[in-house]
Amino acid sequence: MKEYNIAVVGATGLVGREMLKILSERNFPIADLKVFASSRSEGKIIEFEDRKLTVEVVKEGCFEGIDIALFSAGSDISKEVAPLVKKAGGIVIDNSNAFRMDKNVPLIVPEVNGEALNDHQQIIANPNCSTIQMVMLLKPLADSYGLKRIVINTYQAVSGAGKKAVDELIEQTKAYLNKEEIKKENFNHQIAFNAIPQIDTFLDNDYTKEEMKMVNECKKIMADEDLAVTATCVRIPVIFGHGESLNIELNSTYNINDIKNIFANTKNVELIDNPAQEKYPLQIDTENNDNILVGRIRRDYSKENTINLWLTANNLRKGAALNAVQIAEYLAEHDML
Ligand SMILES: NC(=O)c1ccc[n+]([C@@H]2O[C@H](COP(=O)([O-])OP(=O)(O)OC[C@H]3O[C@@H](n4cnc5c(N)ncnc54)[C@H](OP(=O)(O)O)[C@@H]3O)[C@@H](O)[C@H]2O)c1
């Protein structure tokens, strides 16, 4: 079997560590593996199976011979470093929002639009975590009924904002319970025992960047510029797993049981929908589950051809690291490396 030379940039972060774990779990065929982070981590050792990897900082020439570089070090680093990988002949799979809306960069969820990888020009973008889990459910609905309008409300975990944000929730929770001063560094407002209706910064239209990412990325992945999409994104004091409430207007009539059956038969989607037994997807169920969990599927009686549903998924795995590794697998399986 062919083996590939892999680089992970941002290897010490939440997503980077998860990428290494997933490469190992899924036995991705690796020849050489290089790990990069900031100068704060230079020289640290990361264990990967029986290898001991030394964390490096990015330098001119460091990507020579690399087939795939998985990036999760933020958009500034992606913009700066991606050209070095390209120049060395490798392919970048980028988790940041640096290139997602670039028309020369495919924005990929393999189960939804893997075929768009045919047009890649060495940079491939991984969508936003909340977008990935949503389009996994929109795709089978689009195929069966067509989509008209999506109203999104998210309930997003703090791990979506990186490891410092997770630490802040834990520290604030301890401080609150011990009646000590609450310190805020990563979030503008207290996140412990609170919900913050702001993720990322505000734009001129009074939506946040996260909300507009969901709108624009959804249209690009679904290849449907006419799809009406609107979003409100909220950070909640949960460590792992994003939840979303979706109101979806279809292009045709439907039978609610058919929709449940469609999800029950969609790969990497799990239907958990039993109101009588109070069973529905929870954020805590996503910790050791790579599927998109969907439930609370019901008719919207206020609007024709419209449904409501609730979904949860692991933001670090399918929402980031797993999707990136699946893109690499797709490239390898289709002899595109
Ligand atoms: N968390 C999620 O759910 C999620 C989902 C989708 C996409 N993403 C995206 O993935 C990226 C990383 O997120 P994260 O949650 O993993 O953040 P994180 O936990 O804060 O990790 C950031 C990583 O970037 C590294 N880094 C910082 N400056 C660097 C530099 N100058 N050169 C090389 N590496 C550098 C850090 O290294 P040090 O340890 O040395 O500081 C660390 O490895 C972001 O673009 C984020 O938007 C995150």
Automatic annotation (TrEMBL):
EC top class named in words: oxidoreductase
Any GO MF annotation of the entry: aspartate-semialdehyde dehydrogenase activity
Entry's EC annotation: 1.2.1.11
Binding site for phosphate: R100
Binding locations of NADP(+): T12, G13, L14, V15, R40, S41, S159, G160, N315
Protein name as it appears in the record: Aspartate-semialdehyde dehydrogenase
Residues at which substrate binds: Q156, R235
Function as written in the Swiss-Prot or TrEMBL entry: Catalyzes the NADPH-dependent formation of L-aspartate-semialdehyde (L-ASA) by the reductive dephosphorylation of L-aspartyl-4-phosphate.
Reactions mediated catalytically: L-aspartate 4-semialdehyde + phosphate + NADP(+) = 4-phospho-L-aspartate + NADPH + H(+)
Keyword tags: Amino-acid biosynthesis, Diaminopimelate biosynthesis, Lysine biosynthesis, Methionine biosynthesis, NADP, Oxidoreductase, Threonine biosynthesis
Semialdehyde dehydrogenase NAD-binding domain residues: 5-120
One Pfam family it belongs to: Semialdhyde_dhC
Organism, scientific name: Halanaerobium hydrogeniformans
Pathway in which this enzyme or protein is active: Amino-acid biosynthesis; L-lysine biosynthesis via DAP pathway; (S)-tetrahydrodipicolinate from L-aspartate: step 2/4; Amino-acid biosynthesis; L-methionine biosynthesis via de novo pathway; L-homoserine from L-aspartate: step 2/3; Amino-acid biosynthesis; L-threonine biosynthesis; L-threonine from L-aspartate: step 2/5
Protein family membership: Belongs to the aspartate-semialdehyde dehydrogenase family.
UniProt cross-references to SMART domains, sorted A to Z: Semialdhyde_dh
NCBIfam families xref list: asd_B, PRK14874.1
PANTHER family assigned: ASPARTATE-SEMIALDEHYDE DEHYDROGENASE, DEHYDROGENASE, PUTATIVE-RELATED
Quaternary organization: Homodimer.
